Amino acid sequence: MDPLTEDLIVMRGRGAWLLRSRDFDRRVIARIRQAPRARWDPTRRVWVVPATPHAKQVLEALFSGIRLPGDPEEVQAPEPPEAPKPPEAPEAPKPSEAPHGPATLESPHEAAASFPELERERILEALRRELVLAGYAPKSRKVYLGHVRRFLEWCDEARVEKPIPARVIKDYLTHQVEERGISRASHGQILSSLRLLFAKVFESPGELEGIPRPRRTKPIPLVLSRAEARRLIGTLANPTHRAMVMLLYSAGLRVSELTRLRPEDLDSDRGLLRVNSGKGRKDRYTLLSPRAEEAVQLHLARWEVQEAREKGSHWLFPGSRPRRHIHTRTVQKVVARAGRDAGIQKRVTPHVLRHSFATHLLEAGTDLRHIQELLGHASARTTQIYTHVSRKDLGLIRSPLDEE
Predict the structure, then answer these.
(1) What pLDDT is recorded for position 1?
(2) Which residues are catalytic?
(3) Cα distance between the two ends of the chain
(4) Does the domain spanning 117-208 belong to CATH 1.10.3720.10?
(5) Hey, which end of the chain has fewer CB within 10 Å, N or C?
(6) How do residues 185-194 score in pLDDT, each as one tens digit?
(7) Could you give the CA distance from residue 310 to residue 9 in angstroms, rounded to a whole number?
(8) Is the pTM of this model over 0.70?
């Protein structure tokens, strides 16, 4: 039997198979995602695959020797629809007789599939390879593939002709913005993923040339005061939680950069912290506070950390699973809970601590160029946003109400 099949847990649900990996093996999850209409259920923490004969055939091809509970002959779901036959079809029905409305695309729910499931999976696999070759990070690949998958499924329902015309893409984006209310950031991500799809897989980049990008918003970052930052740290009794929060605030780290730190990244003699493969695959150095380093040493002395290192973990903050680092979601929950315990009314996140680090340095007189290097920003314009929240100059201005 295939070792990946042995790692797979299969259960029977209502009209579906429930699958998960025993050890959360990424290779197993990648195969599960190729199953027809596979979706992740966060409540039960399983992958749900509709129990159809077609899905059974695909799963047996993906996992050699897999045993699917239930008799496939009992499954009453129909086979996936066949590709539409070429034009020997009878006359088009009159508008009043058409079951799915007019032929023009006015709604995302007008007709049957134009991208059968197997073809859709081949398209997604081709795009995944292009993303890997282009050096996209795993998280970025997941986001882009998710957007493209939803677009192709939408085309299935709308019975879009091939090749896909530009008006279909505009209709899809309009539907996402007006009916689903997506943010401008998501709007831009969808457009970027479709540009890659059409350029690298469909080889017709011209279809998206006339589609503009959404105008960017210019939000002002949320920042804690110095007193709030001290109060936040003071609420943390757990040495590991205290070390994580102190590193986030004292070094301006992103949460993903914190979780991937190793003990050897701490350069105590130079007072620096090395960040490996930060955003944009860039390495950099940032500050290592002596107080933060003391907190880290207390964390490393804990028996749980020592036990994890004996089991082969090389991470500064080991996770619950062997040889895995702590999950970013765990850090986010720790910071949010600490904010509530400290009585801070603002929504406290790891990125708020990063914003606070930059703003407090700017208020202390640190040059903007140095802050850019510490944060790992590619452009100085990104760092300049902290000038809008700094009290360095605004604090010298008196309100008219306070004038005598």
Answers:
(1) 64
(2) 254, 279, 351, 354, 377, 386
(3) 85
(4) no
(5) C
(6) 899 999 999 9
(7) 29
(8) no
